[in-house]
Amino acid sequence: MLKMSGYTGEILFVDLSSGTFRTEPTEKYAKDFLGGRGIATRILYENPDALAFMTGPLTSFVPSGSRMDVVGISPVTGLIGGSSTGGEFPVALKFAGYDGIVVTGKSEKPVFIRIEDSEVSIESAGELWGLNAFETIDTLTKDDPDLKVACIGRAGENGVKFAGIAFSHRNLASRGGLGAVMGAKKLKAIVVHGTKAVSPHDPNELMSIFEKIKESIVNSGEFLRFKDWHVNFVPTILKLKMPYFGDYEREWEKAEEAAMKAKEWFERHTVGRASCFSCPLRCWGVVNYEGETLPINLCQGTFPAVTFTLKTEDPELAWRIYRKCQSEGLDMMSATAVIAYASRLGLVRLGTEEVLELIEKIVTRQDEGNILAEGIKKASEHFGVPAVYMKGGMESWSSDVRPFVGSALAAAVADSGSVNRALYGFPEFYYHIKKEQAEMMATRFVGDVEAAYPWSYSESKVRFAVLWENLHIIADSLGVCVIALLTTPLKLWAEAYEAVTGEKIAEEELMTAAERIRTLERLFTLKHGDGRDDLSPRLFKDEPRLDKEKLEEMKRVYYSLRGWDEKGVPKPETIEKLGISGLVEL
Length: 586
Ligand code: SF4
What we know:
Blueprint (H helix, E strand, L loop, with lengths): L9 E6 L4 E6 L1 H7 L2 H11 L4 E5 L12 E6 L6 E6 L3 H7 L4 E5 L6 E6 L2 E6 L8 H9 L6 E4 L2 H4 L7 E2 L5 E2 L4 H7 L2 E7 L9 H16 L2 H19 L15 H15 E5 L9 E6 L2 E6 L4 H8 L5 H14 L3 H13 L9 H11 L3 H5 L3 H8 L21 H9 L13 H4 L4 H12 L12 H20 L3 H4 L4 H12 L5 H22 L19 H15 L9 H6 L9
Parallel strand pairs: 1-6, 7-12
Antiparallel strand pairs: 1-2, 3-4, 3-6, 4-5, 7-8, 9-12, 10-11, 13-14, 14-15
Helix pairs in contact: 1-2, 2-19, 2-22, 7-21, 8-9, 10-11, 10-12, 11-13, 16-19, 19-22, 19-23
Bound molecules: iron/sulfur cluster (SF4).
The site of iron/sulfur cluster has 14 residues, from helix 20.
Pfam families: AFOR_C, AFOR_N
Keywords: 4Fe-4S, Iron, Iron-sulfur, Metal-binding, Oxidoreductase, Tungsten
Family: Belongs to the AOR/FOR family.
């Protein structure tokens, strides 16, 4: 069997129970599942103990081709927990000779995996255990700055259900609690040093497509938005009218003032921009404060969540909370939701130093921190005070998605962890500040302006949600940042795939691959959890802003467009058509 260009051709399987490793050919999965999220889901489907780190065929080759997807069973939901990350680790892994790493089993003692150009060893992490993520990265790279690290902090070690995996001081595969999965395996880190070349099929053609993609990205609205987003993002969130105030609250009288203070603070302390490997969007604002330089993620809502959900008027305190979460490897979306919930119980006063103390208690599982570390659903069951959460008990995305009907639908049907794996850049999110652009997108993609309106329950919005989810899956599976993928016609990405792999692929075939991956995610939910009641979580209960009947109807349309029955179960003919009947019992 010939190896497809662009892939290294091998996936590394490490079994920590036996301390052994082996490889499997990537080609076994690549045709049907592309890479990244697709291959990782396919592997997890048959081996739920796996924690898979998978790059895609375009990782390292195209603008924004910096990504890998991390997939395992989420300790919060018991369903798929998936999270994408960028930075340099994914490219280094490919340069070391592996398209991905799949970790199974569990070590008795703390270990880390070292990969040096295909040489693999499992080493003691005894001295690293107990360090936070920043300290771990700094210790491991002290003598070799070229080493790329994926690691957990104390939160992951202690099984905090919303611990992520850190890939640098900035990149975190944050959602789904996958850091706790690493911790349960006693795997502190994976370190990679790769110097091999991975060759594309047609370098000249790829160079020409690279330039076209880059041009498309830098001329996009996204690029223009990021230019000033790095200081304006908190005020912009206010303009978006996103309810960021946590749980059942709708307003915070100091929001405007806090936003202005945050803007001034960022203007004073931002010293530049940074990006993941080969990304022209450069969406990280580099902040220098008190002698420390730290890039802050500007394309997600982490700093706004600290500011608004935690009602932190003082940007210096917000910065310290942000840094504390990041250095401990905590998912800031979940952490802020849990802390806001704790404030309702009187366990912490928001906007004060007590927040930092509570984070420490959560990370080390002291006192009430031990309950809160289990996540918002378990905490609400323990304390008997209702909380808002998504399917399986996962904390909501940074802002409350319920006033946005399409986003509420995407959250309801999600099977791969956080809803941001389906709806980045949804037009209804920015309708309030860029009405024309939102309407133009809705018209362009689904031929109906209604899909742009946050309050609309239109059928076109369901079609938009399906399309958008497919595009996210394609990005996560090709190894491209979804922010970049959405700025550029799919045709160009298909051409890049052909130039890299030598395999022709039509846009429709990419869409079919996304359908296949999405349906496999749903089958995983049905196999391992209760995916039949997508609207049951507390996110939707008692929510006056949502019309439940209309949302039910949208859900039925969504199922139908996916080829699933009225209960959300993929139909036998859909499974057959997608070529995955060999994987499931019909
Ligand atoms: S858009 Fe931002 S997060 Fe995505 S690859 Fe570029 S720099 Fe990284």
